């Protein structure tokens, strides 16, 4: 006897897609479905364009960094970092911990 494997959800097949399409028609109406499909397609296209632009920008930055060989640090930023003191944390006493005169 083989052990029973848990059911795994995969990509919906033909009957499942028909049921989903039928529910969408009931919810939105046959007239609005083409508009919804067009709007979602445009949104996906815009997302892909934005992702591609971001990938291109990252690749461009990586190639510029590798071409320069070493990173140049602005000397003014370096001197500010050396002269700037670290902020001290303020401690506050809680009323129950404060010294109360007897």
Mean pLDDT: 76
Work out the helix count. Answer: 3
Distance between the termini: 81 Å
Order of helices and strands: HHH
Q: What's the shape?
A: extended
The helix content is 55-70%
**Biggest sheet architecture:** none
Cα Rg: 31 Å
Counting DSSP E segments of at least 2 residues, the number of strands comes to 0
Strand content: under 5%
What is the structural class?
mainly alpha
Low-confidence stretches: none
Characterization of the model:
- The protein has 102 residues and is mainly α.
- The protein is 59% helix and 0% strand.
Quick structural overview:
With 102 residues, the protein is an all-alpha fold.
Question: SSE layout and pairings?
Answer:
Elements (H helix, E strand, L loop, with lengths): L13 H15 L4 H36 L6 H9 L19
Keywords, separated by commas or semicolons:
102 residues, mainly alpha, extended
